[in-house]
Amino acid sequence: MAEPSWWQRLNSGLKRTSAAIAGAIADLTVKRKLDAAMLEEIEEALIRADLGADLAAKIAAAIGQGRYDKAITADEVKAVLADEVEKVLSPVAQPLLIGAARPFTILVVGVNGSGKTTTIGKLSARYRAEGRKVMLAAGDTFRAAAIDQLKIWGERTGAAVVARDPGADAAGLAFEAFEAARREGIDVLLVDTAGRLQNKAALMEELSKVVRVLRKVDPAAPHAVLLVLDATVGQNALSQVEVFHKIAGVTGLAMTKLDGTARGGILVAIAAKHALPVHFIGVGEGVDDLAPFGAGDFARAIAGIEA
Known about the structure:
The chain is of the alpha/beta class. It contains twelve helices and eight strands. Helix 11 (266-274) links the parallel strand 6 and strand 7 (278-282).
């Protein structure tokens, strides 16, 4: 049997979100003309999917444009929804370009459990498949499991790994990894970090120290700061963007676990509020289930429009 295409995986991964929205739309549009009450209910369905109140109101207004007191089909509503969502997402759908700097250093940040280490492994596989030399730095030194997981990804993807014992200084490890990567002609250095948001002050200090140390060896490093977000946390993801942007100067986002939630609209709410580039989205555990973000495909999948 042929492997499912990315569109099929995306569509299936966003099924919980699209089913929640499409189910509400289908119920509302059956044998009814469009009125204020229907628009309000559509708006509420979009808010429940975590698209955010402002955007939900804007989409409802677009659906109502010129259609009051007329019969409207579920497909018409979905088409407007997809169009409005795509307008929000198009400006932020940007690839993570590997620049000329060597090693091109990507600092990967996010709370524990967001899928950071797995995302690093998947990116390592992607960059290795492109023929690049990759090194992984196990900078989440507080969790032995994160260090072990990164070593396994290194073996699986043929990437070098720099790791120390649990409890080691993360900034020192980042420095050591950068120097080793430069010596060995590495193309991409992916640096894992801790994500203990319970103690924001300690986390801020540790991350800012990692950034300071990297800048000593290369004033332009880190060349990208990728924030990994877990879609299942819904509105909490908005505050995570704020915290990590302030701490580490986030340059782009990857959103994981979109297949595990009916709240996939949170990505749209984040795009509307923060306008940070969205580089990757993940819809499963497989190594190919992390892919560059495309606005049109995501908008259609969230609206429940088949290919």
